[in-house]
Amino acid sequence: MKFRDDLFGHRSTLGQVCLAGAGPGDPELMTIKVLRRIQTAHAIAYDALLGPEILALIPGGTEQYAVGKRSGDPCATPQESINFLLLRLAREGKSVLRLKGGDPLVFGRGGEEAQFLHEHGIPVEIVPAVSSVNGAAACAGIPLTHRGLSRLYTVLQGHGQHLDNIAWRALVTQGGTWVFLMSKASVGQIASQLIQHGANPLLPLAVIENASLPDETISLHSLIQAAHGEYAAQTQGPGLVIIGPTVDLAVENQLAQSLTEIHGIALSDISQTAS
To answer: Could you tell me the maximum CA-CA distance found in the chain, to the nearest angstrom?
Structure first.
């Protein structure tokens, strides 16, 4: 079902819900449509991963509901409670924005919420966003695909309790680039499983925390280093893991940026000098 851009400017007897993503963190990476929905919604239910810069865009008179979930948080809002909150607000005739980090349909439970609302007769709009998958990779200078290195990438959930459900040998056989979301606490386990199932222990691995934000950090290791516990979290923020040959390109990109900023030297200059 498609909605007009001015959907949230008109209240009807039965409200509607917009499921939208705010992108990987930087407010400037949000889409114009999501910003419009933020400015015109009657009520907004938002995730814990949204930063203060994004929340500051919410108008003062908008109803706000913090319904975030973080791994291991005993105070996390149950998904069933979120579903019924969206349903109640829509039945009150309100235009509701369910605002999530990343993209709403990539490990965001947006599909579950849309299905629930459809079953109860509530109109639903889905607004896509820059996922943390490609957003974090791009900000770190890591191509997910690269001719001659990786023709595909696989996205997996990296919570410890989900690792037993991964077909590790098939993943290693398939190759490409592997992206593990929500995986900061499982870096060692992931690396160990990959090595045990045939992955090259020297494959490069990157842990990206607070992607796209000013305090973003990038930790680079080999699989064997990560398996031996050499990675340590740099921030309290969210993180994801990227593994594969294209991670080496992040090193080149960072070196090129550092040389240019500090010395005004380009990598091409070094290559020409060496030859």
So the answer is: 73
**Predicted TM-score of the model (pTM):** 0.84
Domain boundary among 129, 158, 179: 129
124 and 203 belong to one structural domain = no
CATH of the domain at 180: 3.30.950.10
With a CB cutoff of 8 Å and minimum separation 6, the contacts of 268 are none
Tokens of 74: 């005993």
- Residues near 49 by Cβ (< 8 Å), separated by ≥ 6? 25, 68, 100, 101, 102, 238
Predicted confidence (pLDDT) per residue in 112-121, tens digit:
999 999 999 9
Q: Are residues 141 and 172 in the same domain?
A: yes
CATH number, domain containing residue 15: 3.40.1010.10
Which helix (DSSP H) or strand (DSSP E) does residue 116 occupy? helix 110-119
- 76 C-beta neighbours (distance < 10 Å), count: 14
Look at phi and psi of residue 21 and say left if phi exceeds 0, alpha if psi is from -120 to 50, else beta: beta
The residues assigned a catalytic role are: 47, 69
Q: How many CB atoms lie within 10 A of CB 120?
A: 12
**Where is pLDDT greater, at 272 or 255?**
255
- Quickly state the pLDDT bin for 159 (edges 50, 70, 90): confident
**CA pair distance 73, 49, nearest whole angstrom:** 13
Number of independent structural domains in the chain? 2
Domain that holds residue 32: 7-129
